[in-house]
Amino acid sequence: MHLTAASPAPGGALVLRGGIRPLALVLSLLAWGAARTACANGTEFPWSPCQQCNLLVGVGATFHPFDATGGFVLPIMLDFADGRWELGAFRFATSQRFAEASLPFATLDAHPYWGFSGAHRWNVWNPDWGKVFLGFGAAYRSKTDYIEATHWNFAYQVGMRFNLGRRGELLEFSIRHWSNAWVKLPNRGQNFATLSFAF
């Protein structure tokens, strides 16, 4: 596996071809394997800063309703107070492309950027296998573009958490939406889904 050089995409964005997705997948699998090995050996992981905290790492992808937009996301989150609060950092690592009825498909590119969020989460269902939750908070984007015209946005999420083991291993799937609530146009909204593992 090797990283190839970035090349220009239509609309001026640079896209790293062939390297970042397999690299992120390998890193995620290594982290998951290390966590499983440590837990099987009875080792406490030092990465969680408190007893009721969870450190989550994973992968994600962007989408627009009923259509993928090609963005690859690397999330890292910290939740605490039994999952009722969450802080997150998200690297949108590849360009996103949107179809626009009045314009050619390739003319709308969003460059990679960093995003950060903080949210309160409410558990709406607590079955034996985990929980279903809703979340609301605020998000900050390092760049503005045709997706969102503002750096600060509202952050919404809905997700499911699955209990995997006796020592607190968790798998979480979440769908997220960032929007400025039409305070300033354009406001297409940043939609993305994440799949994360908690140590």
Q: Which regions have little confidence, pLDDT < 50, spanning 5+ residues?
A: 1-20, 37-46
The CATH class, by name, is Mainly Beta
Distance between the termini: 27 Å
Portion in beta strands: over 45%
Beta strand count: 12
User: If classified by CATH, what would the architecture be?
Assistant: Beta Barrel
Q: What is the total number of structural domains?
A: 1
What's the helix count?
1
**What is the CA-atom radius of gyration, in angstroms?**
18 Å
Summarize the amount of helix as a percent range.
10-25%
Q: Biggest β-sheet: count, sense, barrel? A: 8 strands, antiparallel, barrel
Q: How would you classify the helix and strand content by structural class?
A: mainly beta
The coarse overall form would be elongated
How do the strands of the widest beta sheet line up side by side?
Answer: 3-4-5-8-9-10-11-12
Element order, helices and strands? EEHEEEEEEEEEE
**Mean pLDDT reading:** 79
CATH structural fold name: Porin
